[in-house]
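Quick review question:
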């Protein structure tokens, strides 16, 4: 059978089951025939002995009864003849022992027959039963008759135990009477043995051909899951075609996943265009170098490169030409670096170089060399010859930063300085102004992180009617949550405007503020929402004009929204601002002139800008109880606004005395800590 399986190099599972079934059937036939032969031999050797003994005893008792009646030899021979006639399939012969023959005489021809038959001689001599199978169709049983005490009454010359004779019986096996219970027990036992053997055969063969390969596959999958080792492969030593296909497809899948994983790993650490390390990998190198430099007490330098006017190349010649410029620049930078230096593309047209164990002076030499090489480089491109310049910033560890964040901030600050000083030059952080700008950039990182991590919050401060203290509106104010600390807008507004992040904050506050509208309206169904936009947000008039659509999408009526502007928004482009305000007011949105009185031209805007509210500068309001000049200013602003048909709102009201005086002056509304601090709706 092993030879048969060895011949089959590939076999399907269905064919395997068919082959195993045929083999099991063949073995079952062999076992049945073998068991039949064993049963026959057992019947002959065991069951036939008992039947022959019983038959011999019956014959002996018949002859013994005749002899006790005094029958002669002729009568005894006649009785034997009758027995043979009665049992035609049996052949019965009687042989007298020596003691009986000596006293009563031998049978005719008996001596000659005994002399020719050694088996009879042995039975007469030894006195033992003898069972013979002369051929496949018959058996022969010799039953010796031993003398008993009763026999000695006639056989006076004998003694107890002497062999008086042998009864020789021969009969066919086909007429053998076998015990039904014994036969059934044998059949059940042999059948169970056959089933057990076939089961063991199928178990071990299927275990070898099917179970063990599947267990091996599961083991490989477990190793891949635990160790993430995609180089493992399944190797089956089985002829089953399905398992071979399973192994082949599984190994192919592993190879595909391994290749994709390698590509993804390459893409996760390298820039696909230039093949350089990307920002993520550069940050890993930078972190490692900071640890190494700190441990060994040495410096290293980082150069950041930003191409000047690269957008012009992309817009004029197309992005494919821009990509060629970046590839050429990569080659130029590579040629100017040492083997251990790390060159990376941070994104767009920004590159960074890390110079391990390099002090600022040596790093400056490298930066100047690369700057001159680029200045002299003429890029031969399909559209013609192109020159390209770049701004270089150089920072050093630990002078310009001791952490990854500080180094990045320093690079941004120095690069910003290079751009503002005319571009196409190499700059370092070398004065106190640069250090101050680094602080601003650090705060910018804080703002960017707050935006990215969704930590911008919209807090509401009530605006009340001073006549009765009822809530007229809420001003939506921006805050940043830093753990358990709430950072007020005064700490980051200037940074946001300096770094061009004001509009992003405005959009986030607008979104968060509108999300509070439904909750607040449930308690104050007529309250207005004042949004204090950053000055630079009004520079993007398209975004401002999109505010009504934003309100409609949020389900907020335009009539419930008030936009606050200052003269800083209006001053640079009053014509456009006026047109935008009129367009917004046409949708129902109202406008408030904020910080009125803080600038020299505040009164002029009442003439040119169509607004609905005037918010009186808080610095005048705070001291009206104690300073008559401030009170006069507030009175005149309030009077003038009312004559223009506008409502007034006093800011920075922090005590009851101030609130009472505002009632006397006739100011419409007020806001400040006296009426409520900025907080979330809940």
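Suggested answer, residue by residue:
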């Amino acid at each position: 059978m092993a030879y048969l399986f060895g011949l089959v190099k590939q076999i399907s599972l269905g064919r395997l089951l068919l082959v195993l079934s045929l083999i099991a059937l063949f073995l079952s036939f062999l076992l049945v025939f073998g068991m039949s032969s064993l049963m026959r031999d057992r019947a002959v050797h065991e069951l036939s002995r008992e039947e022959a003994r019983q038959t011999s005893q019956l014959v002996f008792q018949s002859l013994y009864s005749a002899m006790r009646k005094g029958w002669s030899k002729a009568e005894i021979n006649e009785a034997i003849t009758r027995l043979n006639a009665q049992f035609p399939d049996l052949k019965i012969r009687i042989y007298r022992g020596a003691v009986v023959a000596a006293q009563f005489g031998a049978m005719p021809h008996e001596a000659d027959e005994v002399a020719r038959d050694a088996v009879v001689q042995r039975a007469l001599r030894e006195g033992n039963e003898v069972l013979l199978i002369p051929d496949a169709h018959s058996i022969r049983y010799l039953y010796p008759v031993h003398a008993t005490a009763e026999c000695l009454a006639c056989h006076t010359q004998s003694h107890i135990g002497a062999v008086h004779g042998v009864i020789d019986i021969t009969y066919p096996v086909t007429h053998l009477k076998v015990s039904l219970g014994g036969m059934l027990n044998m059949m059940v036992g042999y059948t169970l043995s056959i089933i057990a053997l076939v089961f063991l055969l199928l178990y071990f063969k299927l275990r070898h051909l099917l179970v063990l390969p599947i267990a091996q596959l599961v083991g490989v999958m477990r190793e891949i899951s635990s160790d993430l080792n995609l180089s493992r492969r399944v190797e089956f030593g089985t002829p089953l075609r399905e398992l071979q296909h399973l192994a082949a497809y599984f190994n192919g899948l592993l190879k595909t996943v391994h290749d994709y994983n390698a590509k993804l790993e390459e893409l996760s650490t390298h820039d696909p265009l230039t093949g350089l390390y990307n920002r993520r990998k550069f940050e890993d190198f930078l972190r490692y170098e900071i640890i190494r430099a700190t441990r060994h007490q040495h410096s290293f330098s980082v150069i950041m490169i930003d191409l000047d006017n690269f957008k012009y190349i992309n817009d004029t010649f197309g992005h494919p030409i821009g990509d060629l410029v970046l590839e050429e620049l990569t080659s130029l930078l590579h040629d100017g670096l040492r083997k251990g230096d790390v060159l990376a593309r941070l994104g767009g047209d920004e590159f960074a170089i890390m110079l391990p164990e390099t002090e600022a002076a040596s790093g400056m030499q490298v930066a100047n060399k690369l700057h001159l090489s680029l200045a002299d480089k003429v890029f031969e491109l399909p559209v013609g010859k192109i020159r390209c310049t770049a701004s270089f910033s150089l920072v050093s560890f630990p002078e310009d930063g001791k952490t990854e964040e500080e180094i990045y901030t320093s690079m941004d600050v120095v690069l910003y300085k290079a751009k503002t000083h005319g571009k196409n030059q190499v700059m370092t952080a070398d004065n106190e102004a640069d250090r101050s700008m680094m602080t601003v950039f650090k705060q910018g990182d804080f703002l960017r992180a707050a935006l990215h991590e969704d930590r911008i919050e919209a807090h509401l401060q009530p605006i009340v009617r001073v006549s009765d203290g009822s809530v007229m509106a809420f001003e939506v104010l921006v805050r940043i949550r830093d753990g358990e600390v709430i950072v007020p807008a005064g700490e980051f507004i200037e940074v946001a405007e300096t770094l061009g992040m004001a509009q992003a904050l405005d959009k986030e506050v607008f979104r968060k503020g509108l999300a509070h509208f439904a909750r607040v309206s449930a308690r104050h169904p007529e309250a207005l929402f004042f949004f204090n936009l950053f000055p630079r947000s009004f520079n993007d008039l398209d975004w401002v004009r999109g505010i009504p659509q934003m309100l409609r999408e949020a389900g907020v009526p335009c009539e419930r929204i008030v936009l606050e502007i200052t003269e800083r928004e209006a001053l640079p482009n009053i014509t456009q601002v006026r047109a935008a305000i009129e367009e917004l007011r046409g949708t129902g949105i109202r406008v408030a002139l904020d910080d009125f009185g803080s600038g020299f031209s505040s009164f002029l805007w009442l003439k040119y800008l169509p607004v609905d509210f005037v918010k009186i500068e808080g610095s005048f309001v705070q001291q009206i109880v104690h300073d008559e000049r401030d009170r006069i200013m507030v009175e005149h602003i309030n009077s003038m606004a009312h004559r223009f048909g506008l409502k007034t709102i006093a800011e920075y009201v922090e005590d009851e005395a101030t609130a009472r005086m505002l009632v006397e002056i006739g100011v419409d509304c007020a806001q400040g800590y006296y009426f409520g601090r900025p907080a979330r709706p809940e």
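Why it works: Residues 471 and 523 are 10 Å apart (CA to CA). The domain at 271-430 is CATH 3.30.70.270 (Alpha-Beta Plaits).
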